[in-house]
């Protein structure tokens, strides 16, 4: 009998963080602009130590102006999507659920299109409008997805599917009304893009990530029990209703945020928790943090490949995760879990 | 207790990293004297007095740079910049919709040229944040394009060439206008795309170019890129259909149209009043004037006959 | 302080005297729709049970057994009357406190993810920690003891899905025992067991009541097993509590025939416990 200990969680997360760090350093090295790893390390160190004036201005530009913000955004988005994916998989009692199945990304896309129609050249309007769209969708699905006073997995799923179809229809309609050229702005939605810095700033984004993911983490003991059976969990003293609500709201906020700032990057929320489950087991006290870090690693790697594989042409990062994700998914499906 | 401590440590580490990664206000290299400029989208920037390295983010801008005689100053352009032929061998920074920002930075440009009709605003915004001057044009009409040409000329130190190019193009357009003064406007259907049919609205650049060529789009609409149904077209019955050749100069579009049963109902197709223009018609550059003149000739051949001697 | 002896986790006692479970005039009713007349009414029911008591709740289908069980588990609040455990009204307890006092053994729902037996049993320790908890040494010991009590120690590293029906039943019981409850409720636990398994389970429950001072209440269809093992029987019929008493008192031929609508014959054996069989001329 060897139950999960905090030490084991910290050790595994520490290893994954080291992996993430390595991915970040390699990612900083890659790009059209030539720069070596020693130069990167020196630059990072100088900036950290406040000696920015010692850095050649162009390194500053490339490392801190172009690459690092993108990597940082990728880390936050990857962690957010994977954590939300793990949360939704527990909430919907389905290991194949992804964060978009409840319509959040469609709502965000609708918000984005509305902003393109009504406020086409306002900076940051797309992000704000899409987050509003996501928020409205989250509320509607919440109201529709309840049964007997609390969130019910099957009802939620139905509500999400219906909402997604409806929103997609509205989006199609609006897109035919939009002028052809203006649709350029929506292309990044469909495919995912980490180049645009978040309107609210990286700091706040990270703050919300920590809060929301932290809330989900506090429910992980409860989630372990709920996954064995909701009735049983209730009899063991779990406040099932409250836990489901917290997980729903936190996961939805994480998804909405991620989609607003970077478009709909697929496969991350679905695959990462799945792979982490295969590697480290189904205990959510370990699954949530490993999914978060794993998601960050995946996005950093995918984005690095997306922006370097074809030279000066950039593949959308969502296409990269799909390209890599689909074969992995097939492999997972064929292999029995344990 | 221990868990909150760990969370706190993580949050601090993360916030520090986020601070490190967040955008710094990048100062432009102060060594060069510069002038304050506002571009056609209202963005403010400082352009060095002495522009030696230019990156162009659109084919029409590349053309303009060459026509201003500044082809040597061009250090980078897009994958699609093909006119003149020399532009193809310049270092490429990617496609106009999503150029590689790093490649642009690696070329150390003094000035980047962009146009709002092709390039994403985020590209210009990010480059400006990094302290690189980006001049974005936003041509709505042919006249504005001429102004852009002289503006760009002024920016890159080719004032004379810019002014003279503008003047000569203007002269040609004015001459055209005189010739067509007595002619009624031809009612045309300008096809951006044939299947399904997509045309242009009155506020587009193309519509303005059409007017200079003595033509007018038959569609009454407020959309910029309307998609009329065939019924509508049958009702309107344009006098002419104007197609553009595709990029490789393929002129088979007209033949395809004639063979298509959907289009046969239009009188313009039956009497073969289909005109093909160079695809430069959509490109706000000096070559556009050639295309306008060409179209004017095709639509109003009578106006260009030599004057009958009295 | 709970004992850590091999004999197993004992209920966390807060009172030493008096009944542990007290049901006083509890009733419940529900209707098909909000406004129509009640389709089903249960009660009023009153009884008490103390340490070492093993009660059996008998009755045909739709007699209210599950409803009664939900009232006893504190899942539903009675329309009138009270259900008390250790002197406190059960529905007024905090969720975790209630889970420390009452454990319910039901058919297990299908597991979403594979789980080892010991992980499953460890979940029974949930009511004894903070919200986000990692199991302590004491938790592990108690869980081990619970497994030993039900004779499942040998397959504690197995996967839950590998177990047979009887083994699974034992493991579910072990998890309930890990809760160290005062009151152990079982909902038709003998359903999927063969006769050997049924007897083994009832013997075990009897031992738990006798040696570990649990109060055990079993909802069952098994008339004979209930007669052999239970201290008292609660007989339900269409929501009414017809009889509460020792098996000999409750197993009256007329009453049983009316309830179960089958011709029966009751035979009182030497040990004072009745035996029910089909009437030979029926």
Describe, in plain words, how this protein is organized in 3D.
The complex is a heterotrimer of chains A (338), B (310) and C (282). Chain A is mainly α and 338 residues long. Chain A has one domain (6-334): ABC transporter involved in vitamin B12 uptake, BtuC, CATH 1.10.3470.10. In chain A, 74% of the residues lie in helices and 1% in strands. Chain A is built from 14 helices and two strands, in the order H-H-H-H-H-E-E-H-H-H-H-H-H-H-H-H. Chain A has helices at 6-29, 37-48, 57-91, 104-118, 125-144, 153-177, 184-191, 201-218, 220-228, 230-235, 240-262, 268-280, 284-308, 317-334; strands at residues 146-147, 150-151. Chain A has a two-stranded antiparallel ribbon. In chain A, strand 1 and strand 2 form a beta hairpin. The longest helix of chain A is centred in the N-terminal third of the chain and has 35 residues, at 57-91. Chain A is globular and about 65 Å long. The two termini of chain A are 19 Å apart. The model of chain A has no long low-confidence stretch (mean pLDDT 87). Chain B is α/β, with parallel strands linked by helices. Chain B is built from eleven helices and ten strands. In chain B, strand 5 (111-115), helix 4 and strand 6 (134-137) form a beta-alpha-beta unit. In chain B, helix 5 packs antiparallel against helix 6. The radius of gyration of chain B is 24 Å and the shape is globular. The mean pLDDT of chain B is 83. Chain C is of the alpha/beta class and 282 residues long. Chain C has one domain: Rossmann fold (3-Layer(aba) Sandwich), CATH 3.40.50. Chain C is built from nine helices and twelve strands. Chain C has helices at residues 65-73, 95-101, 117-122, 137-149, 165-178, 195-212, 223-229, 247-250, 253-260; strands at 21-31, 38-49, 54-58, 80-85, 88-89, 102-105, 183-187, 215-219, 232-237, 240-245, 264-268, 274-278. In chain C, the strands form three sheets. Chain C has a six-stranded mixed β-sheet with strand order 6-7-8-3-9-10, with helices on both faces. In chain C, strands 2-1-4-5 form a four-stranded antiparallel β-sheet, covered by helices on one side. In chain C, helix 4 packs across helix 5. Classes of the chains: A mainly alpha (338), B alpha/beta (310), C alpha/beta (282).
């Amino acid at each position: 009998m060897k139950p999960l200990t905090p030490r084991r969680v910290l050790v595994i997360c520490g290893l994954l963080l080291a992996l993430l760090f390595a991915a970040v350093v390699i990612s900083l090295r890659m790009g059209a602009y030539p720069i070596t790893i020693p130069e990167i390390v020196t630059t990072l160190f100088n900036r950290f130590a406040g000696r920015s004036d010692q850095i050649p201005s162009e390194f500053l530009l490339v490392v801190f102006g172009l690459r690092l913000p993108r990597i940082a955004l990728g880390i936050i988005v990857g962690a957010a999507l994977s954590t939300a994916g793990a949360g939704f998989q527990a909430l919907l009692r389905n290991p194949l659920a992804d964060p978009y199945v409840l319509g959040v990304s469609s709502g965000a896309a609708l918000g984005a299109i509305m902003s393109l129609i009504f406020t086409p050249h306002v900076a940051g309007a797309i992000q704000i409008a899409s987050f509003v769209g996501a928020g409205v969708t989250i509320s509607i699905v919440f109201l529709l997805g309840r049964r007997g006073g609390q969130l019910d997995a099957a009802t939620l799923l139905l509500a999400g599917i219906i909402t997604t179809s409806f929103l997609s229809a509205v989006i199609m309609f609006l897109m035919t009304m939009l002028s052809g050229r203006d649709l350029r702005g929506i292309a990044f939605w469909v495919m995912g893009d980490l180049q645009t810095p978040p309107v609210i700033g990286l700091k706040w984004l990270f703050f919300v990530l920590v809060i929301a993911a932290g809330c989900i983490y506090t429910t992980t003991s409860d989630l372990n029990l709920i996954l064995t059976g909701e009735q049983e969990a209730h009899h063991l003293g779990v406040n099932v209703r409250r836990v489901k609500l917290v997980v729903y709201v936190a996961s939805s906020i994480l998804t909405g945020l991620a989609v607003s700032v970077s478009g709909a990057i697929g496969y991350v929320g679905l695959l990462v928790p799945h792979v982490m489950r295969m590697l480290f087991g189904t205990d959510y006290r370990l699954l949530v943090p490993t999914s978060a870090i794993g998601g960050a690693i995946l996005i950093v790697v995918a984005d690095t490949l997306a922006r370097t594989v074809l030279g000066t042409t950039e593949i959308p990062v969502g296409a990269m995760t799909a390209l890599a994700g689909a074969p992995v998914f097939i492999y997972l499906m064929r292999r029995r879990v344990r | 207790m221990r868990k909150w401590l760990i969370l706190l440590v993580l949050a601090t580490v993360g916030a520090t990293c986020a601070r490190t990664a967040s955008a710094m206000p990048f100062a432009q290299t102060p060594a060069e004297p510069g002038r304050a400029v506002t571009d056609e989208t209202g963005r403010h920037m400082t352009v060095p007095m002495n522009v030696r390295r230019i990156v162009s983010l659109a084919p029409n801008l590349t053309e303009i740079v060459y026509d201003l005689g500044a082809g040597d100053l061009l250090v980078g352009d897009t994958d699609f910049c093909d006119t003149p032929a020399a532009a193809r061998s310049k270092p490429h920074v990617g496609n106009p919709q999503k150029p590689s920002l790093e490649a642009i930075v690696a070329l150390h440009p003094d000035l980047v040229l962009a146009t709002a009709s092709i390039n994403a605003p985020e590209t210009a915004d990010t480059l400006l944040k990094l302290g690189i001057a980006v001049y974005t044009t936003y041509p709505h009409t042919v006249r504005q394009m001429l102004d852009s040409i002289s503006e760009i000329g002024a920016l890159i130190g080719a004032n004379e060439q810019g002014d003279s190019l503008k003047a000569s193009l203007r002269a040609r357009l004015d001459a055209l206008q005189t010739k067509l003064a007595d002619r009624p406007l031809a009612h045309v259907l300008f096809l951006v795309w044939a299947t399904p049919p997509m045309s242009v609205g009155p506020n587009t650049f193309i519509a303005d170019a059409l007017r200079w060529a003595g033509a007018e789009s038959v569609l009454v609409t407020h959309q910029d890129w309307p998609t009329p149904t065939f019924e509508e077209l049958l009702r309107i019955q344009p006098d002419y259909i104007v197609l553009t050749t595709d990029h490789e100069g393929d002129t088979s579009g007209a033949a395809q149209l004639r063979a298509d049963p959907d289009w046969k109902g239009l009188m313009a197709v039956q009497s073969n009043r289909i005109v093909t223009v160079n695809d430069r018609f959509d490109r706000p550059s000096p070559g556009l004037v050639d295309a306008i003149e060409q179209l004017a000739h095709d639509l109003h051949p009578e106006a260009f006959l030599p004057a009958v001697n009295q | 302080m709970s004992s850590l002896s091999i004999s197993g986790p004992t209920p966390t006692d807060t009172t030493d005297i008096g009944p542990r479970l007290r049901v006083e005039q509890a009733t419940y009713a529900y209707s098909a729709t909000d406004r129509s007349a009640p389709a089903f009414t249960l009660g009023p029911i009153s009884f008490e049970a103390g340490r070492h008591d093993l009660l059996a709740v008998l009755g045909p289908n739709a007699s209210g057994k599950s409803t009664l069980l939900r009232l006893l588990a504190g899942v539903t609040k009675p329309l009138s009357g009270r259900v008390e455990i250790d002197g406190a009204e059960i529905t007024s307890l905090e969720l975790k406190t209630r889970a420390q006092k009452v454990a319910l053994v039901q058919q297990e729902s299908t597991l979403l993810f594979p789980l080892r037996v010991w992980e499953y049993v460890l979940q029974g320790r949930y009511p004894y920690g903070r919200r986000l908890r990692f199991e302590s040494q004491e938790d592990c010991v108690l869980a081990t003891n619970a497994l030993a009590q039900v004779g499942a120690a040998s397959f504690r590293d197995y996967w839950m899905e590998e177990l047979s029906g009887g083994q699974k039943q034992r493991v579910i019981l072990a998890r309930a025992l890990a809760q160290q409850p005062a009151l152990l409720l079982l909902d038709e636990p003998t359903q999927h067991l063969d006769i050997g398994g049924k007897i083994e389970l009832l013997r075990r429950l009897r031992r738990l009541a006798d040696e570990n001072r649990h109060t055990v209440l079993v909802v069952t269809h098994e008339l004979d097993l209930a007669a052999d093992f239970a201290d008292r029987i609660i007989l339900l019929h269409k929501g009414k509590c017809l009889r509460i008493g020792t098996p000999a008192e409750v197993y009256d031929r007329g009453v049983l025939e009316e309830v179960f609508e089958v011709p029966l014959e009751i035979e009182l054996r030497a040990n004072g416990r009745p035996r029910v069989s089909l009437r030979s001329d029926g």
